[in-house]
Design goal:
Blueprint (H helix, E strand, L loop, with lengths): L3 E7 L32 E5 L14 E3 L19 E5 L3 E5 L6 E6 L5 E5 L30 E8 L5 E4 L6 H8 L17 E7 L2 E7 L18 H6 L2 E7 L5 H15 L8 E6 L4 H15 L5 E3 L8 H19 L20
Parallel strand pairs: 1-3, 2-4, 9-11, 9-12, 12-13, 13-14
Antiparallel strand pairs: 1-8, 2-7, 5-6, 5-8, 10-11
The chain binds guanosine-5'-triphosphate and magnesium ion.
């Protein structure tokens, strides 16, 4: 799923003013009559509930609004350039990267909510404006000014209920596939999942959103491997499931590695409600070490859940327990004021027509 893209937008240039003179039979010296250029079209971004992700922006660089038309004789003004409205999914952050420093322009959360990001150029004045008592036949007219250009980043903020984290190949995608219809890829090599993948799971009649994140390895917190931006989804989710393969060389070391990477990325992630799921429990090799592993986890005050993403054994229980943990955390946090985050919420744009 594409949840982060960069594009360039360019508003339309203003139309040029005209430098023309009135002409009519029997009127030998008609005055200047060049009309003004029309304004260039502006560019705005608008949230649309029918958009799922930012995939349609991939590989498309420049988005431009229409230029204003030039003025014409008979004091005729040029038409306005066509406005460009770019539709994005709900919960998209619009960042302006133009000035080198990222500036948050908007957090578009509601259908129809929008923000103007680039103003159209002004139309140039026609020569009617330049006639003076000493110069009654001005030949100059103004050019239209260019429209604004901006480099933007769109970032989708999907808040999942549960995020699956784990080392590569631990079976996170298999887990999601076993309980949802999410079309996620599963393969026997590591790093199959390259970006966050969402699935909806029906848990006792309630739809729970689960996000499958790319594999974590030593150095992931600093962007090693597939980058670390996907960990934002872990931050925003209500609970985490640590998925560890029971047949891995050292599942305890994997668990410690996950804790370390999560904590180095954001200490707050360590306090997030979580459940440890030891996967592939259908394998005889895992069953053979189950009790030993359980004891090893107990020594670290961790209660492991043995599951099989392949057979589905224990998977729903793990999700249900994660949800219960998330709910308890919300109750506990109630009344505790969160630090306010400054987010610019533009008023819904006035719509024409
Ligand atoms: N026997 C068994 N194999 C499993 C189970 N879950 C996953 N596998 C296998 O483990 C391999 C990796 O599974 P994935 O679901 O792709 O693992 P992942 O954690 O999403 O891996 P990456 O996205 O590549 O990091 C595949 O060959 C799966 O068939 C399980 O419960 N039992
Ligand atoms: Mg995967």
């Amino acid at each position: 799923m594409v949840d982060n893209v960069e594009i360039i937008v360019r508003a339309g240039k203003g139309g040029n003013g005209a430098a023309t003179f009135h002409r009519e039979k029997y009127i030998p010296r008609g005055g200047p009559d060049g009309g003004d250029g029309g304004p260039g079209g502006s560019v705005s971004i608008e949230a649309d509930r029918n958009m799922d992700d930012l995939g349609c922006f991939k590989g498309r660089g420049l988005f431009r609004a229409g230029n204003g038309q030039s003025g014409a004789r008979n004091k005729k003004s040029g038409g306005r350039g066509e406005e460009l409205v770019i539709k994005v999914p709900l919960n998209t952050l619009v960042w302006d990267l133009t000035g080198g420093e990222d500036v948050l322009l908007a957090d578009l959360t509601q259908h129809g909510e929008g923000v103007t990001v680039a103003g159209g150029g002004k139309g140039g004045r026609g020569n009617v404006h330049f006639a003076t008592s000493t110069n009654q036949a001005p030949t100059e007219a103004e050019e239209g000014t260019p429209g604004q250009e901006r480099r933007l980043r769109f970032e989708m903020r999907l808040a999942a209920d549960i995020a699956l984290v784990g080392p590569p190949n631990s079976g996170r995608s298999s887990l999601l596939r076993s309980v949802s219809r999410a079309p996620v890829a599963v393969a026997e090599y590591p790093f199959t999942t390259r970006g966050p993948e969402l699935g909806a799971v029906d848990l006792h009649g309630k739809s729970v959103v689960v996000v499958d994140l790319p594999g974590l390895m030593p150095g992931s917190h600093a962007g090693k491997g597939l980058g670390n931006s996907f960990l934002r989804h872990a931050q925003r989710s209500g609970a985490l499931v640590y998925v560890i393969a029971g047949d891995a060389g050292d599942p305890i070391a994997d668990y410690l590695m996950l804790r370390e990477e999560l904590g180095l990325y954001d200490k707050g992630l360590l306090r997030k409600p979580h459940v440890v799921a030891v996967n592939k429990a259908d394998l005889p090799s895992v069953q053979a070490v189950m009790e030993e592993l359980r004891k090893a986890f107990h020594r670290r005050q961790v209660e492991p859940h043995f599951i099989s993403a392949q057979t589905g054994q224990g998977v729903m229980e793990v999700l249900a327990e994660s949800m219960a943990g998330a709910k308890a955390a919300v109750v506990e946090a109630a009344g505790v004021e969160e630090e306010p985050v400054e987010v610019i919420r533009p008023k819904p744009k006035a719509r024409k027509g």
